[in-house]
Amino acid sequence: MRTYKYMLGDHRIVILRTYLSLACLEGLLALGQLLILPGSGVAGGLFGFSPGRLLLLAPALLLTLAFTWAAWRSWRKPDWAISLAEHLSNVSRQTWVYWGTTGLSGAIFLVCLNFLLLNWKNDDPYVGSYLARMAPFALWALFMSLQTAIAMRYLRFGAKLTVFTAFRKAFFAALITFGVMLLLAGWVARTRFGLAPDLFGWGDPGVPILPHQIVIAFVITLTGAILGSWLLTSLRKSESLHRPWLSPHTIDILVCISLWGIAVWRWGSEPLRPSYFSPAPVPPNQEYYPYSDAAVYDIAAQSLLIGYGLGTEVVRPFYSFTLAISQAFNGIGYQNVLAWQVPLLALIPPLLYLLAKALHNRLSGFLVGLLAVIHESNSIALADIANVSHAKLLMSDLPTTLGIIAACAVILPWMMDPASRRGYPLLAGGILAFTMLVRVQVLILLPFFLVIVWLATRRYGRGLTHLTLLVGGFLCVIVPWLWRNWQVTGKVFLSETSQTSQIGLIGQRYSLSVDPQRGQRFPGEADDAYVSRLARGALDFVQEHPVETARFLTAHFLHNQVATLLVLPASSPLVDFLTEFTNGKILGQDPDTPAVWGRCCSLSAQTRKLGYWSAWDGNIASESKLPVLASLLLVSVGIATAWGRNRVAGLLPLGVNVIYSLSNALVRNSGWRFNLPVDWVGLLYYGVGLIQICLWGWAFLRNKDLIASPGIPEGKIAKTTKSPISWGWIAMGGAAFFLLSAAIPVAERAVPERFQDQYPQALLFRLEAQGLFRPMGVGQQALADFLSQDSAEVLIGRGLYPRYHLAGEGQPGSGWPSYSPRDFNRLGFYLVGPTRRHVVFPTSTAPAYFPNASDVLVLGCHVEEYLDAFMVVFLAFPEKVLVHSPLDQWTCPHLE
């Protein structure tokens, strides 16, 4: 016979009594909810309750009485409680019982949670009445399933949690991080900083990932981990192998190749959809062509291909150079570029895998890589709905993302082992420089990386050496480009954007009101005077309105963080599906499951419904609050885990996000594609946090840590037995960077000018002498008379992006006269060559022949910002001539 004192100290008795008491209390709460529900208005029944209400009350009452009796007996009959507790403890030690009960409890928990969300969200009064009556049972089952799983664990393994001893600091750090994020989120919600739109540059969030996509990626990750573990175990047990051939490095290579292949397949299979930067195909060729910024980058590439260099105002030199290289080898055309660009950008998921693996483990890395694949697939799929940039646009945003991730993926492992990886700073500096030649804004990350290198090596004693390598790698890339600019323009500058466009943007946006004319040049104003005037105006505004400046800088910075957060799940499509499907069933309908899913819960339906990607007013939808809160928790756990394992190195991606977001805020810009180069940071920490919480749960249920911490001991540099990279290899790396950067100016000089021996006017008269224009009634004298007019011009070059538009139609946006809406039918294209010019050719019907990138001779009048063409001659087939209107109507307007 056991004493009462022993019984009080037995954790099994405590668990049993607590479990039964909670079950009793939860049953009473469920009964109370059932009793206070409004009646159906049906007369009769016992005690005023309808028969349906009594059918619900009876089982709830019986279960509550049973738990109440059991709880009372456990206190009044200690021997009975001890016997029951021992029996349950013995049963819990049976593996199939323990895991079966735990799995069933988890399934019930998820089902009840979704039912409660369904009841909360359903607004149909008839259907809602049925759901409301079942809600108390669902809430009771929810709590019972949770406490059952916890009770089984304690009965099996006892009350000690020594397995969590190593995680105490991580728990504490996660709690603090989550608390800070909650306070910040509450402050943002109250003040609406980062939510309420600003006057300038307020972009949409990034494209979202839906919860079921997270689940799919998570299941694939776990399945891959289980199969991989089984394969490695089988290989190690094989007698034919003396040593495992799958080393950790081999595993990483295989995983990276797998993620890269999945990305190439998935992104390549998504059809290209019309968007602002790739408008819908139109006659004469029904092809996709770049537009706006995308066209600017490709025009520089086309100019390089025909021997006229990138130009003096090239915006993205290295990106335009890569566009030129891809089309030089693969042929001119949008799809030919994508054949190179998609596989290149598909390196993003493998690099994120390496980052997350370095911060945490391979499970996190693979999950983050899959989420990156899904996120980009969503971006391509939503191009015609959300304002996005993606891997199938000729835009610099994804290449910038690739460069920043690559730089982080190099610096992070170096911070963990500077001794044997001393060449990594050189590599990181070169990657940063090339990325800066894709988007000059990346320059702001250089000081941050210098600080990171100094902090990582101050105890190591060779900080100056590594700082020199980082700066050296950067200069190896930048110096050839600066020399090129000095040779071409007589000035040393990084890019046109760094000199004029960005300054003009700041000068226009540092204001209390919207005035598009504020950032315009004065007639004849030189670049230096323009930059000086606008910079001075911005400084004056900061001095006169410091509070307003601080307000919009803070708002845009926080909006970037909100945009990063909304990339993560912000809705519950499964609940939407259950709502519509359940309503149909209860109302006697037979809903078509695929149709219901596509109508309410697909990616496009969810994006349209939430409204964050279409003139968002800054209000967070009620259904998004719980998913966003969950995302905050997971990101907090991810940050805390990365910090706990790697200290400063673990916060490297967070620092990159903060610095880059601040640079956007300085230009009074946020969201949209401008935040795309760093919105992967939220995804990275989210994946790490999700896997870490699962590992904690697994350790709790199994009483064993699944994966040993791969991180570095706190505050210490990892020691290695590997030999450091030799200085010879480092010198060769610097030389390779220099030669690759120097290839840009070399290519500008090496490619011969395509039309250097063809003078447009002489060529025009030579073609006329051959009789090509006689069927059209165009003779030598008529041409001479026409060209004698002041605004008449004859130009030669490559005709790009021919688009035919009817009267009143055209492309949105300013700065592209070739495609602006006009009141007549016309063909527009862009001419690149010795002279760059927008061309408009009036014609009643689309021409039957005008291949993109055709060499053409164009005769017309210079009107405003474009050439009003009267005749277009295709040099490859001179007999194919486009002529506009009769010859006697070829008259140019008088220039004053």
Description:
The chain is mainly alpha-helical and 896 residues long. The chain is 60% helix and 5% strand. It folds into four domains: 157 residues, no CATH class; 504 residues, no CATH class; 41 residues, no CATH class; 130 residues, OB fold (Dihydrolipoamide Acetyltransferase, E2P) (Beta Barrel). It has 30 helices and six strands. Helix 7 packs antiparallel against helix 25, helix 19 packs parallel to helix 20 and helix 22 crosses helix 23. The relative contact order is 0.09.
Task: Summarize this entry quickly.
With 896 residues, the protein is mainly α. The chain has 30 helices and six strands.
SSE map:
Elements lengths: L3 H6 L1 H26 L14 H26 L1 H15 L2 H27 L3 H33 L10 H24 L19 H27 L10 H22 L23 H13 L11 H14 L3 H12 L2 H12 L2 H20 L15 H20 L7 H13 L8 H13 L5 H27 L6 H14 L17 H18 L1 H20 L7 H14 L6 H8 L2 H8 L11 H25 L5 H15 L13 H23 L24 H24 L9 H10 L10 H8 L4 E14 L20 E7 L4 E6 L11 E10 L2 E9 L6 E3 L13
